[in-house]
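Section 3.1: Structural characterization of target chains.
Under the original work plan, the team committed to producing a structural model for every single-chain target entering the pipeline before any wet-lab resources were allocated. The record below documents one such target. The sequence was received from the expression subgroup and is listed exactly as submitted; it comprises 218 residues.
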Amino acid sequence: MIDHALPDLCSPFLDALPISGVSIAVFSETGAQFTLSSSDEVAARIDELQFELGEGPQLLTAGTGEVTMIPDVLENVHRDWPMFAAAVSALPVRAIFSLPMKMGAVTVGVATLYRDLPGALSENEQISGIAIASAIASAAVERATVSATDDATTETATAPALRREVHQATGMILVQLETTATIAYSRLRAYAFANGRTVQSVAHDVVTRALVFDDETP
């Protein structure tokens, strides 16, 4: 069984930078997100919120390939990501930094760092963080590729088993509604939000056929 704790990927950031935690995610060419690991439950929740809400610094960095720095989440988040801002304000988080993981010119993933005190990373700290992110990119992609086909994958609060069920459910909704993957995932996320549930739990219902989407599904 593959060990998804991956301290070898998270620990370099924790050892080198003044942060409280980190999560590591890889993005496929289609935009599918595979979260490999988080150093703690707060980091995992930051990642989960962005996955569920479809907004936040991690997704911006994945799309632009640029560093996203939020020195104070109480002042710098609400305008661009109002839902994420409201949710993250309940966590012991004051600063978030998303760093691109690149292989050559291609952004293959994002390392999202947080700390419980406000303040930006210094220029040297940013350089160090970007260097670490690039150094682990190949190993992260390899682990994601292997894990995506590993039936023995287990799920924990800090290693969500690549959210395989979410991707399976998106494919099933795509067929049920005869639509695109983007719209199918949007419907899945909207249903979860409207019913006060996590995307993961709704996806499980879809995969087990306890929930079938049709034109009447809110």
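The radius of gyration is 17 Å.
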